[in-house]
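Q&A FORM
Asked by: J.P.
Topic: structure of Phosphoribosyl-AMP cyclohydrolase domain-containing protein

PROVIDED:
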Amino acid sequence: MAAAPAAAPTRAAVSSSSSGVTFCSGTSRPSLRAAAASASAPGWRRRGPAVSVAASSGQSAPGDIDPKVDILLDSVKWDSKGLAVAIAQNVDTGAILMQGFANKEALAKTISTRKATFFSRSRSSLWTKGETSMNFINVHDIFLDCDRDSIIYLGKPDGPTCHTGAETCYYTSVFDALQGSKPSEERQVMTTLYSLEDTISRRQKETVTEGKPSWTKKLLLDKQLLCSKISEEAGELNQTLLDNEDKSRTASEMADLLYHTLVLLRVKGVNMEDVHEVLRKRFSQSGIEEKASRNKS
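REPLIED BY: S.T.
REPLY: Here is the structure written out as tokens.
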């Protein structure tokens, strides 16, 4: 089962201290106040002290920007036209959804609204993805690259991102094209795990006509066999710890377990994105709190 190249989230060069997030020095930009005046969203960093777009000082006039946000905006290396490349990436799948451009006002608005906002070069105005289609990209975090001249909006899309109706704008494979294949909107830029999930999904749709069904198809059709294999693989994974086996053996057994559990998810109609959403909701609570919430429900 071949896997497509991974599109892993990029890490940002942002330093933190006990007093909050710190950035390079810069000057404030009063012209950005309008873009962030309605700020009420939590801080743009998921972990650590929040950096609110609204000024934290009780003496600040309405419409002021938190100085930390203002400094951040000044630290970005905008080009001669005041723009930087802005890439939207799916927080769960790692898929690159789209690429556009942002200026200071667009980044300020994204921080304040948590909706991916860009600058349209053709219209010379800001635009928020989804303002027409309602397929917003809900931003969970924002990353800058090491040179601070490009931006990643890491978020969850409400629906298809591309105007064609495709999940992402990146569905044209260069190597497929070189082999004569036409672009397909169903083609996805997938990380390894999602490529495996897609393969299992395609096996489920296959009709067995001649010959023996694939192993995946057998598991999909036989719940008892599938459950027994999951129990077996989980036991073998545990044994690598009890027997102090090497790392490669543990990785191999984990791969077996992941594969079989993904087959079970397909049988149940559960996607990995559903699992990731549950995990994200647990980031901010302890294991004890999470278990207590299960008991209540």
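FOLLOW-UP: Residues 247-268 form the longest helix (22 residues).
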